[in-house]
Amino acid sequence: MNTDSKPLNTAASKPGKAELAKMFREFIDPQFVITDEETLKPYECDGLSMYCVMPLLVVLPETVEQVQQVMRLCHQFGIPVVARGAGTGLSAGAMPDAGGVVLSLAKFNRILHIDPLARSARLQSGVRNLAISEAAADYGLYYGPDPSSQIACTIGGNVGENSGGVHCLKYGLTTHNILSVEMVTVDGERVVIGSDGLDTCGMDLLALITGSEGLLGIITEVQVKLLPTPEIARVVMAGFGTVDEAGAAVGGIIAQGIIPAGLEMMDSHAIIAVEAFTGAGYPVEAAALLLCEVDGTKEEVQEHIEKAEALFRDFGATSIRTSKDDAERALIWKGRKNAFPAMGRISPDYYCMDGTIPRAHLGQVLNEMQDMSKRFGLRVANVFHAGDGNLHPLILFDANKEGELARAEAFGSDILELCVKVGGCITGEHGVGVEKIRQMPMQFTDPEIEQLNAVKSAFDPQGTLNPGKGVPTLRNCQEYRAINAKPQAPEVQHA
Amino acid sequence: MPDITKHLQQQISEARNQGHKLAIVGGGSKQFMGRKINAEQLDVGGHSGIVDYQPLELVLTVRAGTPLSEIETALAEKNQMLSFEPPYFGDRSTIGGTLACNQSGPGRPWWNSVRDQVLGVNLINGKGERLRFGGQVMKNVAGYDVSRTQAGAMGTLGVMTEISLKVLPRPAITLTLSREMEHSEAIRFMSARAAEPKPLSGACWLDGTLYLRLSGAHSAVEATAKQWDIPVMANGDTFWQQLRDQQLAFFAGEQPMWRFSINSTAATPSLKGPWLLDWAGSQRWYRGDGEMATMEAHAEKAGGQVSLYRGGDRTGEVMHHQQPALQAIQKRLKHSFDPDALFNPGRLYSWL
Question: Which of B6, B33, B12 is nearest to B93 (CA)?
């Protein structure tokens, strides 16, 4: 790697689209170098479709050597590269650059090795999250982090976003569950960060790569830790008359010394929509619902379930139902897992936010959101990870109605500002991407932003990896602050 | 309380202006680690105290110079703990040094490391700027994870002033099982037990004896001990504390001590001398003379890395070498935080 990492050619000598495609086709199967508009179209956005840009072209390399060659060429000509897994991201982190290449890792989909005794698995970066646990199940093992999109999202993307899921409180995020990554640097070097051991010498680059949103390198391989599948898991579903009571019960569980495997909460909008969609038997009259899953040995789960049920009663639960078997547990979770699609029945569009707050402020933040809902004239439903304070307010709107999208964005921005105000942050698991880059100055000062940009430069001095994402420039920060970090949108006063 | 952070900033600015280098020292209990350096001492041990503790949030925020004993006393009052079981090298071990040196005790494979439990840090960079990364919540993916990058950086990226950590409830009961067992059988046995969904929280082998620790709910621990049918050891807690703090006889003496962080199932490198296997085989200690390059070859064959942890020549490299591309990135990273190379120059690597 050049320590200077200067581009070898100037921008003036940049090849055009056809010329670049020709270069790629010399070492990549021509059918996997995509240049026509129709085939490029599906790559114009990730899971957040309100941000779309057509890329210059898309490549789907099949080997690490091909990835290296793509990176060397792009580095040589100063061409932006955006890495892409399954495209399930929700912050426009994989949105293309108009003058750049989208590097899809869809063909890196092989499970390379499972070592049951060492409890680890080596995977190409395009392996789907759920496929890891399915393959490990033969050995009584599974992979802990379980984002809602786990059926489709890839492990490389999980590392890029430091993905979480329902089980984060007990089993941690991606950063807690990986041992090493193989990565191609911006100038085409193949490096391994981490090892088979639990730590390595030197600076913890693995921590920096995890959650770096594709801004520091292209991940081609990941070694994950596997966990023993618990003997048993059971879930308690408790309905409450107020969100404050449910919020207090969350703290109560922790105070008992119990760390649930999952602790999820829904407000009444979500309960009603989900019940209509799935018929999972949710108490539609409740103002808030807690789903508390406990796993472990048979003895431990029995002990903790009894404690949880008693505690929820003490905190005013109006209904309690505990799963008797795995089928009932799956039914109860079915509602939670289908919460987002269920919103489609009650609103043409929804905008999913992703802020994290200290749990103690749950009640206050949920109540303030309802006030905001009236102010913006848009409904908000809440389905979220109560155990770790990661909120996912769903702002319901109709994109066909003039101004509603802008109002939804402004509402979302106010919610994130509130999260920071109570000691939380602007994104818990979806990433900053393009979507929340305007909100970064809410959480970070100028010197902090400058330091983050300096970290980026240590890996990518020319700034060609996923440009415009994750961290704003200082100039942009000042502009965002000048407009109070909010999209300019008219507010609606309800009568 | 006086603004000690401001005072540290002033000291850093002065050193910068005068072209001095700074050796960051908290309690001074881990001075034996890393390379020997020649720099002016920057005492951060006075930057001490618990800033915020929210037991229901499972979050603690402390100044970096806070002694571990003070933290653990406060947590014990709420029946909580630092799950990474930080080693105490004397009374003056601090949380800042524990994170900078990435030190975690016997429970690490099951209860995470100090690095894993960090939620946020405040630090002063080499330009004297006060910066805050991460926070006090468990999920935060805004910006790069600068907080966890401090783990093992040995102070080369800045002076940490505050650290927020995730804490955990203390287990209701702990039980230690022990049985005589040959070395290679112990590796297989520990791996097999660790792959079972049981409340294992420690697995160590030393001097022909295997030690397993169970922690958790009464019912789970007692049922597992019965199923595994391994004798219960008296004073088990003392054994784990002495292992954690390196007070067992194995750790005494003048011979260099090497730390192998490797694949837990790997065969132990064929080196003459005593071995101690911890972390279910993932962390292995070796006492004996050896060349760094030879030790590195052994470690790589076992899927990991080695460091000269204590003793030996501390003027040469003591950490596993870095791939050239990663070395270049770390140099640039160091420069981005500390452009004048003020902090702990050469402590981690001669080139850093």
Answer: B33
